[in-house]
Specification:
five-stranded parallel β-sheet; Dna Ligase, domain 1; D-amino Acid Aminotransferase, Chain A, domain 1; alpha+beta; Rossmann fold; 392 residues; homodimer; ten-stranded mixed β-sheet
């Protein structure tokens, strides 16, 4: 019989909206949750009592932060690899540096994935890719996709080049680049899985994602009309990659669907925009699931609580006053779930998301887009154009 | 076009688990939430960045707290009535003192309710009651229920007396008392409604509650086998009382069911144990709903997201180490939702609750009781005895 409360301390490096929603999930678990924030105004720092201010690029700040934690995890992939090794000497780091490398370095990820037998077994492939250091490396096959090997997010660090001149301009900045074949996809899918150090895995339903200018705008769960066989392959892929890469915590895999073919676009090892719908639409939210996984607790049920869920991101418009527009949205649709991130509004910045759950996907999409557009713009635009079902 | 973020500041007096779960809901709304706590270790103070330490019985502490808030609301009913009037001069107080009086003073509540025509219209009544000041006031009709007119909670302040001697012993303590007829009820029900200052009202489904030793142990939503006509009367009662008493925020009404008859037991004007299931089982949780109501925002949907939900409170056992028992519960039932309050374990103290949603009520009850018993005791006892359906 213990006299002490033994709940462990989880520290998350980074204090954006992912950390904010993880902090919210930690409350119910009774787990002490800390964030390493740039400033007290960061999205998560506003609402997390155990906020430490520091620089995630500083080994000293990271080590000081980790010293008070049992487990360290991440809100983003930008902690330098050499600091991860230092961290691992003082705390459990989940995901560990050996896994996280493949979310940080796209060239390393491509090399590692291409060598995996499981991809061929599942009929999944990566785009053709190669390292780029000079304009001579990209001369044909336009359009070509250039990607910064590290540091990108929300479309930053990705350039679709139509000409040699455009490619040369990107290459002239001297950052590490790889080139990839451009995939004319039918649609984008994502699979989100969790894996614990003990090796337990769990997959959420495969979702369809809609990006605009490289930013995730909409997620539909489950992906409408997806062939169950393709869905199963995507979930198997998620679980297999999490195991082969030794991921602990969440792994999100962004996929292109071309007919029945699945092509791997990107990996992330943290809560991910493709899983925000789980707060309102699944038994266990991705944020609680990430905590359970990094704490090596048994995973929660990934079952959906409704037939379908649609999540739309709220991007900042011109007007700071998000709150007053909230009233209209609440009155217009009492069933819409709004999540605000406490961030200052800047045009195009993700400042929140809305989720609607139910049965009729087109109705859900219409409701979610109306709410998100009103929050962004103060006008109730019609829903986005219909999502085309992939040809099977 | 505004340049300022205009989200208002809500302050809650008291920092128990109700404030903790309200703080959790405030995160998504992007509303600044403060609590007035006794100590930094209080359940809500642990996780709320805007915690003010102070005494809710001190007018000075209350006024200092209220000065930074747009709206003040409550986690309990124990703020002295004279201080409420002071508070109302510096902030919006919701519910206001004129309404809150009827949750604070059971004699005033009985007098007020008994004078309402709507009770007779709805075929609802109060128990027979009378003020008590000496043993001569209770001489016949055993058992008789004695209640402290104010200050009770979780069964404290309620005595079921079988004899004159037992009653005399209670009366000898000199506290304000009323006597009520003992109601041999079929079962207990509760209805939870929200009302905003604008007058919008919304009712959650009527639930069955099971109390042990005056403490709520289990809530089943909706109340199994409840005649739809009785359910409708209970919801109408909730909305009518909220309007007649001028309640802003939540109003919970605990009811005795005797056949088709409804008898009013208690009122509370705050988030209530009978509504904890809404976090996992309704579109809008009672905690978000309370915030929306006190902020005069449009109310959220009160629709259930599953056919049925069962909530069981986790009471403290002998062992502090709740967390290590958590692992077993998570592994045994990945679908159970556990909510811990961060409170030190003391025998019989409410330290958390579990909720299970689905279709088969008896299965849900079995799962919820297993999880709660294991968290309390470290042994997996079978579910509680079956709940009898009320005779209709």
């Amino acid at each position: 019989m213990s006299d002490e409360i033994s709940a462990p301390v989880v520290g998350m490096v980074g204090a954006g909206q992912l950390a904010r929603m993880t902090a919210q999930a930690a409350i119910g678990l009774g787990v002490e949750f800390r964030v390493l924030a740039d400033t007290q105004e960061d999205s998560a720092a506003q609402i997390c009592t155990r906020t430490v201010i520091g620089d995630y690029r500083s080994a000293g700040d990271l080590l000081k932060f980790a010293a008070g934690c049992d487990v360290v995890t991440f809100d983003h992939e930008h902690v330098p690899g050499e600091h991860l090794a230092d961290l691992e000497r003082v705390a459990e780091v989940r995901p560990g540096g050996a896994a996280l490398r493949f979310a940080q370095d796209k060239l390393a990820m491509r090399d590692r994935l291409s060598a995996m037998g499981v991809l061929a077994e599942l009929g999944v492939r990566c785009p053709r890719y190669w390292a780029v250091s000079s304009p001579a490396d990209v001369t044909a096959g336009w359009p070509i996709v250039l990607k910064a090997t590290s540091g990108g997010y929300d479309g930053k660090g990705v350039w679709i080049c139509q000409t040699e001149e455009a490619a040369a301009e990107v290459i002239s900045h001297g950052i590490g680049l790889l080139a990839e074949e451009y995939i004319p996809f039918d649609r984008e899918l994502a699979v989100l899985v969790a894996r614990s150090p003990k090796g337990q895995g769990g997959s959420y339903p495969v979702v369809q994602t809609v990006q605009r200018d490289g930013i995730c705008r909409e997620v539909i769960s489950p992906a409408p009309g997806l062939d169950p066989e393709v869905s199963l392959r995507a979930q198997r892929l998620g679980l297999a990659l999490a195991a082969e890469l030794g991921v602990t915590g969440l792994l999100a895999i962004e996929l292109f669907q071309v007919g029945g073919e699945l092509i791997i676009n990107e990996l992330a090892m943290r809560p991910h925009n493709c899983g925000h719908w789980t707060i309102d639409g699944a038994v266990t939210s991705q944020f609680e699931q990430h905590l359970r996984a990094v704490l090596d607790l048994p995973l929660g049920s990934t079952t959906s609580t409704a037939r379908a869920a649609v999540m739309v991101n709220v991007l900042g418009g011109d007007d700071q006053d998000l709150y007053s527009r909230f009233v209209h949205v609440m009155a217009a649709d009492p069933g819409v779930r709004v999540h605000l991130y406490g961030k200052r509004v800047r045009p195009g910045r993700k400042v929140g998301h809305v989720t609607v759950t139910g049965t009729d996907v087109e109705q859900l999409r219409d409701r979610a887009w109306r709410a998100a557009n009103y929050l962004s713009l103060g006008t109730e635009e019609p829903g986005e154009e219909p999502v085309e079902e992939a040809s099977q």
